[in-house]
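User: Sequence in, structure out. Go.
Assistant: Echoing your sequence, followed by the structure tokens.
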Amino acid sequence: MLSAAPDRAGDVVELGDGLLRVVALHGIQGTRDSWVPVATRLADAARWVLPNLRGRGAAPRGRGTADYALDPYAGDVRAVVARHVPPGVPWVLAGWSMGVSVALQYLIRDAGPRPAGLLLLSGTPALCEASWFKASEPAALLAEISAREETLGLRVAADREAVAATWTAIRATDQRPHLKDISIPALVIHGRQDADSPWAHAVQLAQSLPAARLLTLEDGGHGIPSSHADPIAAVARGFFTELKRDIP
């Protein structure tokens, strides 16, 4: 059952039950709605913490482009964890698309308590080599953002101005030099047909994280949380079971 709670990092809902918490971060054009297909299938295995990050839903808006960089997003995640993950409770940090970049940044900047595991979908450690948007002129970028909403089949989309500011702030990011220092168990799930974050990016991510493994969805594109919710939930359930077994 969904329950709302105010939070400076955005409006947050919790779904499901269980000792394990999963803090799941949406993509650049998504909202927490992006995770609902997977979370509902795993509501018996974990309690899902689903924030709308800044600029999405009822979350606060940034005052300028700098407010939409990865560090401020990571700070938002820290606030969510502080409020929604009780001390001593094991938790998983999950991300889809840009949510992967935010999750990695949370760990790179040592923003807060460390998760027991990472669940990373359709992401890239090298936004500088991704081509989510090609336009730089504001009107053209907004038009491209609108068209991509339809391509991704988003049921609920982010505010387009926030998306444009976010892409402007993060498009040159390269997190690859830091991956070797993230030794948390990680499950990377990626579609081989992903045109936004090519499959080769997932291979590099999984190979560079010391404790990661990669599951490839051969017919999957970028929107796998909705198009492949069943296989994602099945393998994530096993991953959660392993983590709980290994937690003292």
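User: And one key feature?
Assistant: DSSP finds eight helices and eight strands in the chain.
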